[in-house]
Amino acid sequence: MSNDLRTISNENKKILLNKNVIAVDQDPLGIFGRMVYKKFSKSLFSLGLTYFGGYSVQDLWNEQQLGYMTPMDEYSVMLNHTSVSMFKATLKMDLNDLDNNEIR
């Protein structure tokens, strides 16, 4: 960053120190998202979430749990032209899935 970090606003400090957002770039498998849409400065990336048992979804910027979703569910968000959204999808599974080798 090209500014004095001692003088940044609390709002900017909260963004820079958001541990959930920082952790997004720490995928141990190194799996990158695939761009599925781009128009002007708008981009949409997909990680190919296919496990039908579902995922626990979290809005990283607003620090809100959005509940459980499956690959068939849709979620929409309205953004202005200077905004961004980030979500984390955590695999929802039970021990039977592991026994049956149903995790893909």
UniProtKB/TrEMBL annotation:
Single GO term (MF):
alpha-galactosidase activity
Q: Which InterPro entries match?
A: Glyco_hydro_27, Glyco_hydro_b
Q: A single GO BP annotation from the record? A: glycoside catabolic process
Alphabetically ordered keywords of this record: Glycosidase, Hydrolase
Q: Name one Pfam family in it.
A: Melibiase_2
Q: Name one GO cellular component term.
A: cytoplasm
Note the superkingdom of the native organism: Eukaryota
Report what the protein is called: Uncharacterized protein
Organism whose genome encodes this protein: Meloidogyne hapla
